[in-house]
Amino acid sequence: xxxxxxxxxxxxxxxxxxxxxxxxxxxxTFFGSSVCNGxxxxxxxxxxxxFYNNNIIDTTKYQYFNVSTGGDNxxxxxxxxxxxxxxxxTKPDFVVxxxxxxxxxxxxxxxxxxxxxxxxxxRSRLLSLADSLNQQGIKPVIVNCYAHSDFTKExxxxxxxxxxxxxxxxxxSINVLGxxxxxxxxxxxxxxxxxxxxxxxxxxxxxxxxxxxxxxAIQKLKKTPSxxxxxxxxxxxxxxxxxxxxxLEIKNTVHSFTLSFRFKKTDNGSxxxxxxxxxxxxxxxxxxKLYYKNxxxxxxxxxxxxxxxxxxxxxxxxxxxxxxxxxxxxxVNEQIxxxxxxxxxxxxxxxxxxxxxxxSCLNLDEAIDLYNKxxxxxxxxxxxxxxxxxxxxxxxxxxxxxxxxxxxxxxxxQSTQIQF
Length: 420
Known about the structure:
Elements: H1 2-23, E1 26-32, H2 34-37, H3 47-53, E2 62-66, H4 76-79, H5 82-87, E3 94-98, H6 101-104, H7 112-135, E4 139-143, H8 153-166, E5 173-174, H9 177-180, E6 192-194, E7 197-198, H10 200-207, H11 214-219, E8 233-237, E9 246-249, E10 257-266, E11 269-276, E12 279-286, E13 289-292, E14 295-298, E15 307-314, E16 319-324, E17 327-333, E18 340-343, E19 349-358, H12 364-371, E20 380-384, E21 394-395, E22 405-407, E23 412-416
Parallel strand pairs: 1-2, 1-3, 3-4, 4-5
Antiparallel strand pairs: 6-7, 8-19, 8-23, 9-18, 9-22, 10-15, 10-19, 11-12, 11-18, 12-13, 13-14, 15-16, 16-17, 19-20, 21-22
Helix pairs in contact: 3-10, 7-8
């Protein structure tokens, strides 16, 4: 009899523990329109589903919901009570909002004045939704506006303008436009199902733009970063000319990506790059001439001013843009999958600041924004402005990401502090 009572007690304790464990899952809900819902992907396995189910996120920790509805926009999600009937029943901890300017009506306007009004409607209502969720203790994440095969030049301009606005918000965001945009606002051929939707491969490219550790980083209370205007910087001393002095290992697949930084005085040699299929792809400097493969630009004889570099790769377009101080130097035809990226290289020293790595291809307008110190937090996996002394064997990551930039032991980083 006693044994039976003990057994029942243990059974109750185990059941409560197990139930508690189930209840401890973090609810991750995708809430948007047809692309967010996975339309035109095989078995509706769109970018949201692929992100959750392809060993990118810990599925024992997070519970996935997708309550997106085709055709929805910022008005319909309230008009048809999507919030009450679809979103809130999932009891979300995170809501990833995936809406589009196309559904908002941007293509129905005849002139830019009408498009401006649609943009303002989308901006104000999307921000209001994010604010409302945030006030309820629900963490919003914004999916940036994306391509459409029927976009005109003007509609593409407004798409990029809206994404620029989203990058000024305090909420994290995802740069899906940079995954399969043909740089004219349309889906890249081979990644499109129809004018309004990508195919399965297109959804896969979009899924890669979500920073894998984004939700874990937010759980650890990492805030959305902003530009650090402090003029201080660091000097990387690499007397042994180690090839990867500051190295960021890529643990989940990256296709489209952007590497950017500023440098000032430096020795000859490589100053940044990445590895793909065991091959080094380097940005190098030799006698005041800066190179990326067959592209080059002449720099001033005295490097007393900061030079800003952006290397932006579009996997779908099979092209890499080399941009220096906001100017496109040229394009290399290539399709690469990086296994790691690094800052510094064979140059024995380099003065560095504003190190960033994005999991998406920044377009030329966005690269110019970076040069002009307009911060881009969408799909940002690593950021350190190098304005503070570096301690230990890692460079602190200020992005909403848990990725780490490792310092090789043979490298010395000296901090130059300037009165601000």
